[in-house]
Structure formats: C-alpha cells, structure tokens
C-alpha cells in the first residue's frame, strides 16, 4: 500500500514566487502622450513628423491608449485562471515605457518576498522589439531596484526568468482561429489579410537566431490559422501577410507590403471582401484601433471592399488557459534544469523549432552583429 501512496501534491508553479506581466505601456491621458513617445523613441532616429503624427493617433482617443485597460483585464484573467487551478502565484504588471514601470512591479514583488520571478511578455513573437528589448528593460530595472535596495554593485535583488515567445503555442493559434472563424461568419467569401507590426529589415534579419525570423514566425502562424479555419468545417481561405505601423525614415527599408497598399492591390485584382486579422498583436493596441480600425477600414471603404476586423486574442478563455499552461511548463523546465535534468519538450504546433526558454547568445538583436550596449536578463550571455 505504502508504495502506491499518492505522490505529494506538487506545487506546479515552483520555483516561482510571482509572475510579472511585462508589457509596452501607453499614455493614460493627454499630458502623458509626449513624454511616453520620448521614452519609446529615445535614440531610435524616428523623424519628428512621425512622432507628431503618432501623437495625433493618441489624441484622437483622448490621449489614452487602450493598452493599459487591456493589460489590467489580462492580469485579472490570469489571476482568475491561476486561482481556478488552485495555483498560488501572485501576478504583478509592469511596463517598459510607461507607468506602472517594470522596476516598480518587481519592487512590489520583492517587498512581498519574491526572489524568483517569471516574466510573461505581451508579445508572442521573437524579435528585438518583442523579446530582447524587454530583456534589456528587465536588466536595467533589476539594476535600478538593486540601487534602491542598497545592494552591493553587481548584485540583483531577485532572479528573473522568461517564458519563450509563444506564437507557436496551440492556444495562441486556436484563439486566432476562433477569431477568424467568427469574422468569416460575417463575410463568408472574404480573403484573410493577416497583419502584424512592421519592423526594419535589419531587425527582421537579426531576429532569426536559432529558429525562424520574425516574418517567418508570422507566416507560420498565418498558415496554421488558415489551416485551423479549414478544419473547423469552413473552406480553406486565401490569405496574405501584411504589415502596419511603419515608422523610421523613408530611406530605411521595413517589412512590406503595408496593409493599406495591399488592400489596394487586392481590390485591383478583383477581391471584394476581406477579413483583417491582427495576429501580430495580443490585444487591441493603438496600432489596432488606429492603424487598422481607423485607417485600414477607411482604405477598404474607399476601395469599395467589404472589410471585417477579426478580434485580437485579448482575454479569450482558450488563450488565457494557454498562458497559464506556459507558466506551468516553464516552471517544470526550471525545476528540471535546477535538478540537472533535461527539460520536458515544450508544447508547440507547426514546423518551426520552439524558441528556447533561455535566450541564446546574440538572439534577437536590433541589428545583426551590433551590440546594443545594453545588458539583457533571461539569456545565457547578458552581453551578446
Ligand atoms: C514589433 C513591434 C511590436 C509588437 C511587439 C509588442 O507588442 O511588443 C510593437 C508594439 C507596440 N508598439 C507600440 C507603440 C509604439 N511603437 C513605436 C515604434 C516602433 N515599434 C516597433 C516595433 C514593434 N512595436 C519598431 C521597430 C518601432 C520603431 C522604433 C524602435 O525601433 O523601437 C512607437 C514610436 C512612434 C512610431 O514610430 O510609431 C510607438 C508609440 C505599442 C503601444 C501601443 C498602444 O499604445 O496601444 C505597442 C504594443
Ligand atoms: Fe511599436
């Protein structure tokens, strides 16, 4: 009997004491807009005209970005799902570019006794913007917190790990399939125009270490979503991958086609109906409510195209459950690694290799071969 005794119930989120929901941040009101934009673009070579234009996008919505409310909703949904599973893991929320800042979220977790924290970023894809730039923010936030706490030089107050880019997690794909199926119900013959944030070609090229590049990750998600739609009993839709929110000087090449240009090509080729699916964004950020719902839908109207915007994954149950699955998976990997054992195979779909939990040296740089000059947490080599 003794041998068959049930195993001790295991704490599925050990060794983590807290979850950091790490996001981009956005202004909460008109006075925040310019200081926020200066934070985002410091040293990035974004022309002033572009900044003024983006400021207008925010003022169009009363100077407040929808992203903060969406992150609060996601934080609440994660807390509810952890609670439902009986997992005792507090969730703190911190941003790279606006309050509440990462450092303050980590300070709160630390004050509550957290010494090992897991980060979940609100970007599903690997690139400088969606991965390493967050990791640089983690490092500098830990440095700043160490100073506040009076720690000796070079010592960090807690250990921070990160969940891999999760574009290839079945729940992210499934939530996008649901959203596209719902949109297609309103426009049954539509062509599906997937959209993500454009990045400079140089960033695209540097995003591919140990796996596919930023655009290749999106092509794979688009293919899997279209396949998922077909498997739901619908037809296999025709689809394209397009980009929005280009900035930078016109002389600098960024990923194309722009969604508006592409709608024009489609209309010229006789397409009459489109579903616009923002697979590059986990919730309805400013890029979605302005660049898509305001600009791209207006372009479609002018072209006489019927256009329906599919939801971003937001706080759909299937997505939130998947994020908590990723937390549990990452914790199991940490326990295995700590015990000198191999980590279990990460759950993923599609043909690309899953991104590693611990970033490889030199992964996701801003530009290949160019050191950003900033140290980054959650990688084997903070410098590379
Ligand atoms: C790949 C990617 C994502 C997706 C991954 C992720 O989600 O993290 C993303 C998200 C976001 N980008 C956002 C806002 C901005 N991005 C900017 C500028 C830039 N983004 C870039 C890339 C990305 N950005 C790049 C290469 C630049 C050029 C400057 C640079 O090289 O860094 C600028 C400056 C003005 C402009 O140039 O447009 C703003 C205001 C917001 C908040 C929106 C809201 O308020 O709801 C979010 C979620
Ligand atoms: Fe951006």
TrEMBL record:
Tell me what reaction this enzyme catalyses: Fe-coproporphyrin III + 2 H(+) = coproporphyrin III + Fe(2+)
From what superkingdom does this record's organism come?
Bacteria
**Mind listing the UniProt keywords for this protein, alphabetically?**
Cytoplasm, Heme biosynthesis, Iron, Lyase, Metal-binding, Porphyrin biosynthesis
Q: Where in the cell is it found?
A: Cytoplasm
Gene Ontology molecular function terms on file? lyase activity
The family annotation for this protein states: Belongs to the ferrochelatase family.
Task: Give the encoding gene's name.
Answer: cpfC
EC number(s): the record gives 4.99.1.9
Identify the enzyme class. lyase
Matching InterPro entries: Ferrochelatase (IPR001015), Ferrochelatase_C (IPR033644), Ferrochelatase_N (IPR033659)
Q: What is this protein called?
A: Coproporphyrin III ferrochelatase
Binding locations of Fe(2+)? 197, 287
Q: Name one Pfam family in it.
A: Ferrochelatase
Q: Has keyword Metal-binding?
A: yes
Summary of the function given for this chain in its UniProt record: Involved in coproporphyrin-dependent heme b biosynthesis. Catalyzes the insertion of ferrous iron into coproporphyrin III to form Fe-coproporphyrin III.
Residue positions annotated to bind Fe-coproporphyrin III are 65, 134
Tell me, in one coarse class, where this protein mainly resides: cytoplasm
Q: Does the keyword Protein biosynthesis apply?
A: no
Q: Per the UniProt entry, what species is this protein from, by scientific name?
A: Cellulomonas fulva
Q: In which pathway does it act?
A: Porphyrin-containing compound metabolism; protoheme biosynthesis
